[in-house]
């Protein structure tokens, strides 16, 4: 994976003014050395050339490790241009350990060499010597196309300080020379700079001898022309391929740069010595440190991890065998500590790419969740203990209160029956009051116990086909005396056919007794109460109790089924009771997958409807609401 810009990217001239857009910028670039310092036939002795798959460039190197042809080199410096030649004034460079490999020379013609596409490239061209020149800085051979197909001219230049290394005297005017070297520019002239004498090969005789040979070999002239055309076509084809490869490489570079900088995770690129080469914008955003700060300092890891233990663990992760992930706590530029999670992948030449995310908020949420779970577990245990104590209390209360209460009711009935007229009216009345009060207390106890069992799921319900018609009539008979005592006309409107529900008979009796008792309690004297059982339009079995009582405000219905709540409460309440009956009714219906609804109007009365599932496997008896 390549993480430095392509050479073509730093040489891009988007506005077409003849100079690179990034001229004057400090940047990093990498490539293979095509000409080492002091090898190039250049005026300066510290100039080397680099080339990648997209382009080539001259580089002025400072003092440092010896650089050889074929080395993989990463340089950092300022991009400049002098007398038309674009180069990097290098401030620091590094040789990447890898086997030496020199790119192959690009085959060019004289005409294509003098175009601006190949400056900095290692090229091979073939031209005829048309002039030999000497300047104050060196000697040059002026080359033209061997077949005269182009008027373009290319200078083969050798600086004075390299004159002993290159034997230019062996070439005469008219000779055809095959020159290999680095394409350069000086002012408005294009040059090719050889690296050693072996880069210059005399590929033909002098023009006079060539002319004689052409006359002698006239029969081959046509073939030579055809071969030239074929060769030119191959060169042009190769040139187009290189340009296409250059465009594709530039496209991929821009794509990578876009992904690298816009990635929502932190990215850091490290060299083989764990030094920072690049970081992305997300790294700077999260931790606050800039790329310049980390690249310029040898103690960059100390900035991020001041604690020795944290730093050793992080470097062990970066430098050791690959592991799944690392959780670390780097310090931000403003002094805060974050919790981060990192992954690592190894690249070529000992480099490493590390990806990280800030998990501080996630860790805080996990900690809060653990605390919440601990609190919930504590609350659950406390609730279970409270439920156990409540069950123990209710069991004791059922035994300790129900047993003497039953005796009291029995004795009151005996006193009332045996006293007769001889005991006087007060004795009989007192006995009846004791019996009624005992029944009321027993009913309250039963209601509390039923509510508790329904809430805890301890009430054993046996769901089976139950005839609601029979249950309605049975409950009405049990409460008929209570209705007569208040002058209430208790009516049962049921069909002649059974209305079966999948329910528990005991729970149905609880529901009916509560609803009918409430209807009698809250109805005015000399009024009516209806008890109904039928199947509605949906096929569900319905129990219904309607009264002509006091009714209530519809806004009070919402709280009506809460335990210990009544329409009238406190000192102002007008009727006896604990407010448990309707809560028991609702929970009993829920336990049988039924629903309870209320229709009420203050001063007119109320209608309570309990909708229950129809019994499966029993042929439905279609009835309608009476």
Please describe what this structure looks like.
By secondary structure, the chain is an alpha+beta fold. The chain folds into five domains: 7-96, Bacterial OB-fold (OB fold (Dihydrolipoamide Acetyltransferase, E2P)), CATH 2.40.50.200; 106-216, OB fold (Dihydrolipoamide Acetyltransferase, E2P); 266-358, PAS domain (Beta-Lactamase); 363-453; 460-612, Histidine kinase-like ATPase, C-terminal domain (Heat Shock Protein 90, 2-Layer Sandwich). 36% of the residues lie in helices and 26% in strands. The protein contains 14 helices and 24 strands. The chain has helices at 7-10, 110-113, 207-216, 221-262, 281-287, 291-296, 300-304, 308-319, 360-419, 425-456, 468-478, 480-485, 505-521, 581-591, and strands at residues 26-35, 47-51, 56-60, 72-82, 85-96, 106-108, 122-134, 138-144, 154-159, 176-186, 189-193, 200-202, 266-270, 276-279, 326-328, 340-346, 352-358, 464-467, 489-493, 500-503, 528-535, 541-547, 595-601, 605-612. The strands form five sheets. The protein has a five-stranded mixed beta barrel with strand order 1-2-3-5-4. A hairpin with a 2-residue loop joins strand 10 and strand 11 (189-193). Helix 11 (468-478) crosses helix 13 (505-521) and helix 13 (505-521) packs antiparallel against helix 14. The chain is rod-shaped and about 160 Å long. The two termini are 85 Å apart. 29% of the residues are buried. Mean pLDDT is 83; it is low at 569-573 and 620-624.
């Amino acid at each position: 994976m390549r993480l430095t810009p392509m050479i073509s990217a730093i040489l891009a001239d988007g506005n077409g003014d003849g100079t690179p857009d990034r001229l004057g910028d400090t940047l990093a670039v990498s490539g293979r050395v095509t000409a080492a310092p002091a090898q190039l036939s250049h005026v300066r002795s510290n100039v080397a050339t680099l080339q990648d798959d997209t382009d080539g460039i001259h580089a002025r190197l400072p003092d440092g490790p010896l650089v050889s042809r074929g080395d993989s080199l990463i340089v950092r410096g300022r991009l400049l241009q002098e007398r038309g030649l674009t180069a990097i004034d290098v401030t620091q460079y590094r040789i990447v350990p890898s086997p030496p490999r020199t790119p192959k020379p690009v085959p060019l013609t004289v005409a294509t060499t003098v175009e601006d596409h190949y400056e900095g490239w290692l090229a091979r061209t073939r031209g005829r010597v048309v002039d030999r020149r000497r300047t104050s800085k060196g000697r040059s051979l002026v080359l033209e196309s061997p077949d005269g197909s182009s008027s373009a001219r290319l200078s083969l230049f050798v600086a004075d300080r390299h004159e002993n290394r290159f034997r230019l005297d062996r070439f005469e005017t008219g000779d055809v020379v095959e020159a290999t070297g680095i394409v350069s520019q000086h002012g408005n002239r294009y040059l090719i700079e050889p690296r050693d004498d072996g880069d210059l090969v005399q590929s033909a005789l002098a023009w006079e001898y060539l002319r004689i040979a052409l006359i002698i070999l006239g029969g081959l002239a046509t073939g030579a022309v055809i071969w030239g055309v074929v060769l030119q076509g191959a060169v042009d084809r190769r040139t187009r391929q290189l340009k296409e490869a250059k465009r594709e490489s530039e496209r991929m570079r821009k794509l990578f740069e876009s992904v690298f900088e816009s990635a929502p995770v932190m990215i850091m690129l490290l060299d083989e010595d764990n030094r920072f080469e690049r970081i992305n914008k997300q790294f700077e955003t999260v931790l606050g440190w800039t790329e310049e700060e980390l690249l310029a300092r040898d103690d960059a890891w100390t900035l991020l991890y001041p604690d020795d233990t944290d730093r050793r663990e992080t470097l062990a992760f970066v430098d050791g065998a690959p592991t799944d992930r690392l959780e670390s706590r780097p310090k931000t530029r403003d002094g805060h500590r974050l919790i981060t999670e990192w992954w690592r992948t190894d690249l070529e030449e000992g480099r490493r790419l590390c990806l990280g995310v800030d998990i501080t908020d996630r860790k805080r949420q996990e900690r809060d969740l653990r605390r919440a779970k601990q609190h919930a577990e504590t609350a659950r245990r406390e609730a279970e203990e409270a439920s156990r104590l409540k069950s123990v209390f209710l069991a004791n209360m059922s035994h300790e209160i129900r047993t003497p209460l039953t005796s009291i009711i029995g004795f009151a009935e005996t006193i009332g029956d045996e006293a007769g007229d001889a005991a006087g009216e007060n004795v009989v009345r007192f006995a009846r009051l004791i019996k009624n009060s005992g029944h009321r207390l027993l009913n309250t106890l039963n209601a509390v116990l039923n509510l508790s069992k329904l809430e805890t799921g301890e009430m054993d319900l046996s769901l089976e086909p139950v005839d609601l018609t029979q249950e309605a009539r049975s409950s009405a008979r049990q409460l008929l005396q209570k209705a007569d005592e208040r002058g209430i006309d208790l009516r049962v409107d049921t069909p002649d056919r059974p209305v079966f529900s999948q329910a528990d008979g005991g729970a149905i009796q609880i529901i009916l007794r509560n609803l009918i008792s409430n209807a009698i309690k809250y109805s005015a004297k000399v009024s009516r109460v209806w008890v109904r059982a039928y199947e509605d339009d949906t096929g569900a079995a319905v129990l219904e109790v309607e009264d002509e009582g006091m009714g209530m405000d519809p806004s009070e219905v919402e709280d009506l089924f809460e335990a210990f709540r009544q329409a009238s409460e406190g000192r102002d309440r007008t009727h006896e009771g604990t407010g448990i009956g309707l809560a028991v009714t609702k929970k009993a219906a829920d336990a049988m997958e039924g629903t309870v609804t209320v229709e009420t109007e203050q001063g007119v009365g109320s209608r309570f409807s309990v909708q229950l599932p129809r019994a499966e496997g029993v042929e439905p008896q279609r009835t309608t609401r009476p």
